[in-house]
Automatic annotation (TrEMBL):
This is ABC transporter substrate-binding protein. It comes from the Bacteria. It comes from Coprococcus ammoniilyticus.
């Protein structure tokens, strides 16, 4: 079923403002009951509209993965669910969408159905579906997208995307409305309507909607969770986000935030943390079984939905122990740095491979204070002792230094299997570490590259720093920011370094001091030019908006590229970026398409193109998510099975985040786009110069999709991702860029460090 336009509109509508209250109370106390987590049945659903319990059965409403809205019903969260298609042809067509759902004790469903007209205006209607499939329209022509519906004793309450909360009788008569533009969720608690915002809990009289009180004081954990819930709401805009429920038996409100599950008693304003969530899964909706048991529908970032039980009761332990008994295989995966994207990848893999448990470990993160050198030394000690992780993600490690030690398995047969099973994989990237004798000890599953973006005719010859500097000098200073939106030393280094890394120290460990010198000179040339065209106010403004470099670099590619949407306003038509993932490509083609929210396509940016940078030998890429297998025999078969699965189109089509890279499997890229097209128009909006531009999270035309694939196919020269070499150069380049050290002194320092390292 097509969802034309709704993903975008819902996403925009769900971006809620932070509110504040006016009634202070004593700070709530916090305890932790330590509920156990039991992962239950996986649901084959693309969208979750609502989840509840009718008599003794769980009911889940949503869209099937192959289209069409369905109802799943089952007695146990780990058992088989009966599936039946909802017969809604009389009240909605294929472009309409269910945006919220609730159910009564008799089993009737109350659905919010949204429709978009040719002008992209949304109207909603409330539909009742009785157990015998009789359909009744309760309210029609609601002038907004409805995102919440809650039943009352004699009617229902809806929450709309514009922040207006409306109360209706069952006959469709509007009783009152409440304007609360920053609300996150609503629930009915006896004679009260409870409204959750980013900073408070507000209560209203259910009969007439007048405000009763505003509660603004909570413990720090709950406060942080409320703010995060408001900012996260709408991230999966196709599905519901019912995070607050009232339980009459205990007279408590239960709030399921990203940080954990909380109970809140309105009568004494006491908050209690029941458990802390270990995973970052999205929690769509939940059922309060009892004060010690909660059944939720959750989803990981790969889109997989399942039922999860959080409970103090051991009633679910039998299922858990059965599952554990069947999980006879365990694979340990290591990466040098903690990467949330790898954790998400593993969660997705486990959800589809119940017979394998994958444990993720890492060497360095923001908290443990371990240096790269010490982390690598510890890993090497384990591997040489015949121990250590089963799968090693080699990003940041010197692959060649491990090849002759015997600690890694020869993956030449695995590589042949991957290529045979996935013929659309980029051979240049797959064969990055293939030796002349045919042996292969590591295989990249992703890649990144540096590219220049601008009008095609103007950037065609911008192929090195000298031509880039000449081009910038030929342009007027931008009205907004500087030419590249680079305000940190690290921005220049991290974008430019991969282009030179392949020659400074090549894959075989050959060091070229002259290339290092050229890199430092070119880096200084670009840095000096841009700093001369940048004011301190511009630097301060950027830092105030995005924080320090380390805080925003993973998610801020849009900050470097988005001024290109409105080049007349910004004075910017150039970008120099690290194309880390499909997201940067989506943003580029969105800029090229130049669509504004609510308007027809523009044509100002149709001349844009982007060109990967390279050397005389070809376009350069950085191998990413480089997979190797421990040579120890224990778990080796399971490790190989895990590695091979990561190259499949089914896995490669999933987007895991900025740390992973662009897919190596082009069928995965095409499969992603097919999935996105089945959703309608997934994406969001970017505000530039007072205009909102559409930022699509897929390729809108086959031409754009194949252009992206063609650019990936042209990547042929691997850069050296050795993190210790990079760190030695990066740490010593700062003084040179700032004019505190000469080029010769900087070269001598780095030269000495590199020579020692390469002889180790």
């Amino acid at each position: 079923m097509k969802h034309i336009g709704f993903y975008l509109i819902m996403l925009i509508g769900m971006m809620l403002c932070w509110g504040c209250g006016d009634h202070k109370i004593t700070e709530s106390t916090e305890t932790e009951a330590g509920l156990s987590e039991y992962r239950m049945a996986q649901l084959d659903m693309a969208q979750i509209c609502g989840f509840g319990k009718v008599q003794d059965e769980y009911v889940c409403i949503g869209e099937a993965e192959n289209g069409g809205y369905i109802r799943l019903t089952g007695e146990k969260p780990d058992g088989d669910f009966r599936q039946e298609e909802l017969k809604l042809d009389s009240v909605m067509d294929e472009t309409d969408m269910i945006t919220a759902a609730d159910m009564d004790e008799a089993g009737s469903l109350y659905l919010a159905v949204s429709k978009m007209d040719d002008k992209r205006d949304i109207t909603g209607r409330i539909v009742k579906v009785m157990p015998d499939d009789t359909v009744q329209i309760l309210a029609d022509h609601i002038e907004e997208n409805v995102k919440n519906i809650r039943l009352t004793a004699d009617g229902y309450i809806i929450g709309c995307a514009d922040g207006v909360i409306q109360c209706f009788s069952m006959e469709g008569q509007k009783k009152y409305e409440i304007e609360n533009s920053d609300y996150t969720d609503i629930c009915v608690a006896g004679d009260k309507l409870v409204v959750l915002t980013a900073r408070d809990i507000e209560t209203y009289d259910i009969s007439d909607g007048h405000m009763l009180e505003t509660i603004t004081s909570f413990d720090d954990t709950l406060t942080e969770g409320l703010e995060d819930a408001a900012s996260e709401k709408g991230k999966d805009a196709l599905s519901c986000s019912n995070i607050m429920k009232y339980d009459e038996k205990s007279d408590q409100i239960y709030i399921m935030l990203g940080t954990g599950l909380f109970a809140y008693k309105l009568s004494d304003k006491l908050g209690t943390r029941l458990t802390t969530f270990k995973s970052a899964d999205i929690r769509y909706d939940f059922v309060v079984e009892d004060s010690d048991t909660f059944v939720a529908v959750t989803g990981d970032k790969s889109g997989n939905k399942r039922i999860v039980v959080y409970s103090l009761s051991d009633a679910y332990a039998a299922y858990n122990s059965t599952k554990e008994a069947s999980d006879s295989r365990t694979v340990t995966v290591y990466s040098l740095y903690y990467t949330e994207s790898y954790e998400n990848l593993i969660t997705w893999y486990e959800s589809d491979h119940s017979d394998i448990t994958v444990q993720y470990i890492w060497g360095v993160d923001d908290q443990n204070g371990i240096s790269e050198k010490d982390a690598i030394s510890s890993l090497n000690t384990q591997l040489l002792a015949g121990e250590g992780p089963d799968v090693i993600i080699m990003d940041g490690l010197n692959v060649k230094s491990y090849e002759n030690t015997g600690v890694l398995m020869d993956l030449s047969q695995v590589l042949d299997d991957i290529q045979k099973e996935n013929p659309s994989c980029l051979k240049n990237v797959l064969y990055t570490y293939k030796n002349k004798d045919g042996s292969v000890y590591a295989i990249p599953a992703m890649e990144t590259f540096t590219a220049v973006i601008g009008p095609e005719a103007e950037i065609r010859n911008v192929t090195d720093v000298q031509s880039l500097v000449a081009y910038i000098n030929s342009q007027d200073k931008p009205a907004d920011g500087n030419d590249l939106s680079f305000y940190y030393l690290e921005s220049y280094f991290d974008t430019l370094y991969p282009v030179y890394a392949s020659e400074i120290v090549d894959m075989e460990g050959h060091y070229d001091r002259e290339i290092l010198k050229k890199f430092l000179e070119d880096l200084r040339l670009l840095y000096d030019l841009e700093m001369a065209r940048t004011t301190q106010d511009q630097i301060n403004d950027w830092t105030a908006r995005f924080g320090a470099y380390e805080e925003n670099i993973k998610d801020n590619y849009s900050g470097y590229m988005s001024p290109l949407f409105n080049r007349e306003w910004s004075g910017r038509k150039l970008a120099f970026v690290d194309m880390k993932t499909m997201s940067e490509a989506w943003l580029f083609y969105s800029i090229k398409e130049d669509s504004m929210v609510g308007m027809e396509d523009n044509t100002a940016n149709r001349d844009y193109d982007y060109e990967p940078w390279g050397t005389d030998e070809g376009m350069i890429y950085v191998p990413n998510t480089i997979l190797a297998v421990n040579s120890k025999k224990e778990n080796r078969d399971s490790a190989v099975e895990f590695v091979k699965a990561l190259f499949s189109a089914e896995v490669q089509k999933k987007y895991y985040g900025t740390e992973c890279g662009n897919p190596v499997n082009m069928d995965g890229v095409r499969a992603w786009n097919e999935d996105a097209l089945s959703m309608g128009t997934p994406g969001g909006a970017v505000e530039v110069g007072g205009n909102n531009y559409l930022n699509w999270t897929y390729w809108r035309t086959d031409e754009y999709l194949e252009d992206y694939i063609d650019k990936l196919s042209r990547l042929c020269v691997p850069s050296n991702p050795d993190v210790r070499i990079r760190s030695m150069i990066r740490e010593n380049a700062a003084d040179y860029l700032e004019g505190n050290a000469s080029l010769e002194d900087t070269l001598n320092i780095i030269d000495k460090l590199l020579n020692v390292y390469l002889k180790e």
